Each structure stands twice: as C-alpha cells, then as structure tokens.
Amino acid sequence: MNKKQAAILTYLTSLGFFIAGMLNPIMGSKLFLQFKRDDVYLWSSVRDFYKDGEWFIASLLLIFTFLLPLAKYGFLGGRLFLQRGNESINYWLEVVNKWAMLDVFVLAVIIVNLKFDSLIIVTDIRIGTTFFILSILLLMLTSFLLRTQKTETR
Between the CA of residue 7 and those of 36, 113, 124, 147, what are the distances in Å? Predict the structure, then answer.
C-alpha cells in the first residue's frame, strides 16, 4: 500500500468516525440515585449554549467542532481525489490546518465543564468522545501522509 492509498484509507475511516462522533453522545449525566441518564451530544451542546445566551461559546463550538473540520475534510478530499486545482486546495488546507487543533481544545473544555462530579450530579464520557478523538487523530495522520508524499515526489 502506497502513501496515497494509506491517506485515502485514513481519510475515509476518519470521516466515518467523525460522523459516528456526531451521532453518538459524548457524555452522559445523571442525578445521584437516579436511573435515567441524560446524554450530551456535540450538536446539543451548541444548541444548549445558544439557548442559555452563551453566544460566544456556542459560536466557538460551532466553528471549531463542525465548520473547520468539515472544511478540512473538504480540502483533504479535494487533495486526495481531484487532479487539478491542487495549489489553491493546498493553500486553503494549510490555512485550515493551522486552526485544526482547536477542535481538540473545544472538546476538552466541554468534557472538563461537564465532568465536575459532585455528590448530586454524576457524569461519564461516552463513545461519541472516542469516535470524535479518533477522527481527529486519523485526519492528522491523513494530512501527514499527504505532506510526506508531496515531499517524496519532488
């Protein structure tokens, strides 16, 4: 398997994990001695912050966990699957890559914010967090494979 094939495999796997991370809860919480657990999803976090009047946090969350990763998937997909226009795609991919690690930070802030267990509220990390983190790591690996393939072909 060459680096481009490996990049395509990691790209598609990452995209699958990203979608799974969006569809599955990132956290679960419940009141002490309560059996019903409330699940927290990335998208519901954005909605809840907007509803609570936290426009700045909601906007950051929307930009760095949804819009920038989707842009990165688009530019990486263009780099992988299109034969023309690579210079403009490469430029925008580099711009997006500079901001790409903020999605990890935003997810960490959500987890820290919700993970403060007390005697009343108990929270735990759910499978959506794992999927989202795997998607980020595989997307970083895809970028790395493409960057090293580009330097080898020169």
Answer: 42, 34, 33, 10
Contacts of 94 (CB under 8 A, 6+ apart): none
Q: What is the pLDDT of residues 73-89, one digit of tens each?
A: 988 888 888 866 577 77
Cα 144 from Cα 147, distance rounded (Å) = 5
Looking at residue 83, the DSSP 8-state letter turns out to be: S
Q: What is the CATH number of the domain that holds 73?
A: 1.20.140
- Contact (CB, 8 A) for 50 and 138: no
- Token pair belonging to 5: 């094939």
pLDDT digits over 11-63, tens only? 999 999 999 999 999 888 776 666 666 788 888 888 888 999 989 988 988 88
pTM, two decimals, is 0.79
Domain count, the chain: 1
How far is 56 from 46, CA to CA, in rounded Å?
10
**Where does residue 24 fall: left (phi above 0), alpha (psi -120 to 50 degrees), or beta otherwise?**
beta
Domain limits at 147? 3-152
